[in-house]
Amino acid sequence: MDRAEIARLIDQLDHPDAVRQREVRDRLVALGPEAVEVINANLRCVSTRVRTGLVQVLADIGDERALLPLMRYVFDERNNVTESNARGLAMQSIMRIAQPRHATKLFDFLVDMRDDPDAFVRTYVIEAFGKLGDATATPYVREALDDASEFVRERAQKTLDELEMSQTKNAQKLSGEELLREIRSATGARLTYCVKLLSEHDDAFALASQLVREDGNRSMVGLQVLQGLDDPAARRVAVRHFQLTRSDADRAASLRLLAEHLDCDAEASELNAIKRALDWDDKFIELAALAAAARSGHPELTQRAVEATRSGDYNAAATASEALSKAADKLPANLADALFGSIQMVNGHRRHNPHEDLVRTEAYLLRALSKMLQPNDARSHQAQQAALASLRRSHEQQPIVITALEVLMRLTPKDGYKLKDRWHPADAASLVPLLRHANPSVRRRALEVIRRGAPGDAPNLSREFERLMRDDPALVSEAVIPAILETSGPNAKKQLAQLAVANEPTVRRAAESALRRLRNRQPHIDVQFKRARE
Questions:
Q1: Tens-place pLDDT, residues 89-144
Q2: What's the angle, vertex CA 115, arms to CA 111 and CA 117, rounded to 5?
Q3: Which one of 175, 378, 446, 448 is CB 3.0 to 4.6 Å from 434, fit for a cystine?
Q4: Which stretches of 15-64 are DSSP H helices?
Q5: Is the distance from CB of 56 to CB of 24 less than 8 angstroms?
Q6: What's this model's pTM, rounded to 2 decimal places?
Q7: What's the CA gap between 21 and 520, in Å, rounded?
Q8: Distance between CA atoms of 307 and 461, rounded to whole angstroms?
């Protein structure tokens, strides 16, 4: 048939008789490649119904000359709602026609179409990614897990599982050397995936160490993998690489790796590397060296880290304090006084300038003290006072709130202090606002700390108990009633009596038990005597 005859045949796809339409489609398919160019030329200038039929015909013919026109049509009509069905069929046709040699062009097209307004088109895109089986598509498929359409999300999860399974099978065929070759040349998502495989490999340490020794463009990958492996032998790799590499970024990463594995037991070569790095011009190397110094166990280097916590360099202060908190259980006891001084100084600066690094520094220093001391230590009370002081006007500073409560939980007796040994009301007052904290866990911990150490006459405490009894019933029997009982505030008896007639049986029983314990603590017996009958 000549082009004009094929064009007239295409027009008959608009025939009202469905049987006739089917016959026309079959004739066009039978023409095969002969009809493709004419169909491509007419694809954009026919009605939607005819176009739907043509898309199906192209899919059945399978000629790759139709690939580009179909892709262009799907892309250009992405905001045309009336073309939704035809575009969906076109996406299916594209996948049927595409050959392996079209993978690159098709992948770029799918990336462009992944945010298409039509949910069905987005679904076909995800399905196509799965058929390609390219690991590079994984981040795009993972994005679709948050798609507005439930259908797209389900397809994305299935495709993601298929991709990961396919990649795992392929990876199992790779030897260690083959995996290293992949890492040396891969980029983007493929590199990310290969690094993940390396970290899970049976010979991960040896392979990552080899990348580091090569001191090439993937030595940083090796250092990162070693960072995630819990193998102290990485210390030797880190020190050697620090000494030999010409890259400042690698030097900093080597010191970070060394710091993670130091346990206050640095050897001579490690100490020499840390001392050199502390005076380096590069800021990242200096920060990494501070972390290693704090965990070295060497008195001079540890003191250098403590001094850094008081410096005007907030980043250095946060780095040093974090490392000190990790090594605190091995630090000498005589460092506690220096840490108390650092906390006091940082607290003063942070109140005037709530910089993120100052907040972190104060929290880490509190944690370090907590790990250095025991509840029965003579300086335990001083550490509690430091934590209470840090809480003052700091209730929006989450790291300080969480860490200060940890310190107080660790250093106070589980049974609580006797009334005469409890904190001063003004000190305990910093805990009371936490009973309104948005985080339920913080409210619960604050109640427990109040139960252990706060006096009943702490400012506003009784009023907050009343509010919790009314607004936070989940905490009443478990936390509020014990706190009311142990703090023994002026309204304790009245508050417990109110709860003793509550509708909730658990609350009522807990309140009755607390009332009995409260009465047993009274210094006199409250009874009435009746005159005997004559």
A1: 888 888 888 887 888 888 889 998 999 999 989 998 998 888 887 777 888 898 99
A2: 140
A3: 446
A4: 18-31, 33-42, 48-61
A5: no
A6: 0.68
A7: 95
A8: 39
